[in-house]
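User: Hey, quick favor. My workstation is busy. Could you predict this chain's structure for me?
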Amino acid sequence: MKLVLTALALVALMAGGALADACVDVFFEAPSIVHPGETVTVSGGITNCGDAAGIAVLTAELTYNGEIVPCDAEVAVPLAAGETKAYSLEVTIPADVPVGVYELCVTAELDGATDTECGSVEVGGTSVGRKARRPGRTQAY
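Assistant: No problem, here it is.
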């Protein structure tokens, strides 16, 4: 009898919406070519696809040959349930990184739910300030 009452209480709690499911979805655009020492804007959209309002924390991460390259990019975005907002992150490419193709990932975390979107970015060989640079293209991910 006690087990049945506990099960009924749990069903009633779940039906009342007290246990909301968290869900987040993120996408971004970034320049396809960047240079060492350059600060670039990564922009996109984030959706709270869950049942409750919350604050999503977005972070950007660069990796090269499996190694994480620090770029210290983070922003917090308050979202109502079902809301989509635009965001931007300022990502600084360290001046001493080797040229090559890097993976750029943006991760969103909202109340325990996470979503990560990744794409490639080419780090060119000329540091900003040393030589005029070519305008970069933007790539959506």
